[in-house]
Specification:
- By secondary structure, this protein is an alpha/beta fold.
- It has one domain (about 5-100): Rossmann fold, CATH 3.40.50.
- Helices cover about 40% and strands about 20% of the residues.
- It has a four-stranded parallel beta sheet with strand order 3-2-1-4, with helices on both faces.
Length: about 100
């Protein structure tokens, strides 16, 4: 898959780090991160914000996307139950974006 651009969303997480390591040398990798700091090869992406996701995809123009972003801290998830209404919005957003 030479010349293919891979966008790894959640690249700093456990799965994302391993996916990036595996894909190095096989793809041009762009790391999508919620708190990207402008480092080369990264882009800021907030999966709960449709306009932000559209903008990131337009800038990166990926051939492949791995969506590995997740909150894996169970205690933090419990403490943030008020954010749960966000999840239906994320689930509605992603199929539309993938089909573009």
């Amino acid at each position: 898959m030479d010349g293919q651009r891979l966008l790894v969303i959640g690249a700093r997480g456990f799965l994302g780090m391993h996916a990036v390591r595996y894909a190095e040398g096989k793809f041009e990798i762009v790391r999508g991160e919620r708190s990207a700091d402008g480092e080369t090869g990264t882009i800021r992406i907030d999966i709960s914000d449709v306009a932000n996701v559209d903008n990131a995809f337009a800038q990166v123009r990926p051939n492949c996307v791995l969506l590995l972003a997740a909150m894996s801290d169970i205690d933090a998830c419990e403490a943030r139950k008020r954010r749960l209404p966000l999840m239906p919005r994320v689930r509605r957003t992603w199929p539309r974006l993938v089909l573009k």
